[in-house]
Design goal:
3 strands, elongated, mainly alpha, single chain, 3-stranded antiparallel sheet
Amino acid sequence: MAGAALEITLDDAELQAALQKLLAKLGNLQPFFADVGEELLNSTRARFQSQTAPDGSPWAALSPRYAARKKRNQDKILTLRGHLRGTLTKFADAESLRVGSPLVYAATHQFGRAEAGIPARPFLGLSDADRDALLDAIADYLARD
């Protein structure tokens, strides 16, 4: 996926242990990752409404210069016509899950571009609520017969 996708390496021992149990039970984690991917897409899309990063911090405000010339969605950050939010997608296979956007400028918004004066406005990543939902999803899958 070109654009921006975030690879999250889990350094959370509780999540790693739960995923290992799930792998031992299922063998193929693709169905699990596909379901979790939908949840993470919803969570990521919600950030465009709350205009906050996964850690809950607000996105940097629009520059006064850009805000003055912005014709649509003047009160929304990272939204002019909704293309970035509209292109969020997931890819799930047996070993991984990726959530991101294929748009070239997605990475610019996720990570910022200091030389162009564009601050980072992270929209991809795991929030504490996402982490809890992931643990709940693992527990649900482990409880299935």
